[in-house]
Amino acid sequence: MSEQGTGMVRAADEQQTREQALVEQVVASFDHAQDARLKQLMQALTRHLHAFLREVRLTEEEWKAAIEFLTAAGHITDDKRQEFILLSDVLGASMQTIAINNEVYANATEATVLGPFFVEGSPGIPLGGDISFGAAGQPCWVEGTVTGTDGRPVPGARIEVWEADEDGFYDVQYDDDRTAARGHLFTDEMGGYRFWGITPTPYPIPHDGPVGALLAAAGRSPMRASHLHFDVRADGKRTLITHIFVRGDELLTRDAVFGVKDSLIYDFVQHPAGTPTPDGRDLANRSWASVRFDIVLAPAHRARNPFGRQESVNGQCG
Ligand code: BEZ
Ligand code: FE
Fold first, then answer.
1. Burial tier of 15 (Cβ tally within 10 Å: 0-12, 13-18, 19+)
2. How many Cβ atoms are within 10 Å of 283's Cβ, its own excluded?
3. Contact 113 CB / ligand 1 (< 6 Å)
């Protein structure tokens, strides 16, 4: 090798040595974290973050752009808008965390993202009641059962449902304080439930901020496949936060937040105007839809929160 060639090899070796030394220095800085889990998280984060920086050979301009992106995400975030969760959603980080924390358990129903439009304090409705509260959309009869993985019915399970109207907006996106297209009910003695909602339609995730700009730059759509949200909880069972999706929706393969699972795609059967409804409701000559969603809950177990108190599984991200 020429003298110049040897010099280049030496420089490359020295470069690697310096970069690796920095990784080890930062990893070691967490050696004395009091909480062992915090130590594990921060040391692994350091290793993966530095591996990323070194792999892509991040430029200082790119580092600055990333800081500006995160700053913009912070500025648009308030008690109603959470751009960091949205970022986690479009990176698939929310769905990966959900997959890790809702381990496959027999035939238990799969979980998916919570999304930003859940609100506490939804109205209670009786079995067979209507959660639409005037929201625009085709009436949709939803029914099914809640059972354990042993097949036993779960009476008294609390089912919370929420969805967008046919214009693609949740009630909380209007500025008139309405409550519509959300509610909760409890299963009967046989674990059965039924209610009227509206047939889900597609809508975009909030895309007027930095996450929307990122999607546009990447040529990705902000659209979510049509869905109806469920939060199902019962004593002794793992809380299930999920959606059902509409079979045939063309967005199923490109949901912006990777929330679609094959097992959550259901037939929403269309019924022409005039078809008798399951509960005899008079729909004034409108068409309607129906879907059956049988929910299977895994047994409860507990997870540890390294940043504080013990929490039950499914504080749910996303
Ligand atoms: C939603 O389901 O409404 C949603 C989920 C994740 C991000 C944005 C919206
Ligand atoms: Fe949604």
1. exposed
2. 16
3. yes
Which residues are CB-contacts of 151 (< 8 A; sequence separation ≥ 6)? none
Residue 202 CB less than 6 A away from ligand 1: no
CB of 89 closer than 6 A to ligand 1? yes
Question: Measured between alpha carbons, how far is 297 from 236 in angstroms, rounded to an integer?
Answer: 10
Residue 169 CA to ligand 1 center (angstroms) comes to 11
Rounded CA separation 33/39 (Å): 5
Give the separation between CA 298 and CA 148, rounded to whole angstroms: 6
Q: Give, for all 318 residues of the chain, the pLDDT tens digit.
A: 677 788 888 989 999 999 999 999 999 999 999 999 999 999 999 999 999 999 999 999 999 999 999 999 999 999 889 999 999 999 999 999 999 999 999 999 999 999 999 999 999 999 999 999 999 999 999 999 999 999 999 999 999 999 999 999 999 999 999 999 999 999 999 999 999 999 999 999 999 999 999 999 999 999 999 999 999 999 999 999 999 999 999 999 999 999 999 999 999 999 999 999 999 999 999 999 999 999 999 999 754 555 554 444 445 667
Q: Does the Cβ of 86 fall within 6 Å of ligand 1?
A: yes
- Taking residue 73's Cβ as centre, other Cβ atoms within 10 Å add up to 20
**Residue-wise over 201-231: b if at least 16 C-beta within 10 A, else e?**
bbbebbbebbbbebbeeeeebbbbbbbbbbb
Ligand that comes closest to the CA of residue 206 = 1
Q: Which ligand is nearest the CA of 93, by number?
A: 1
The tokens 């993985």 sit on which residue? 149
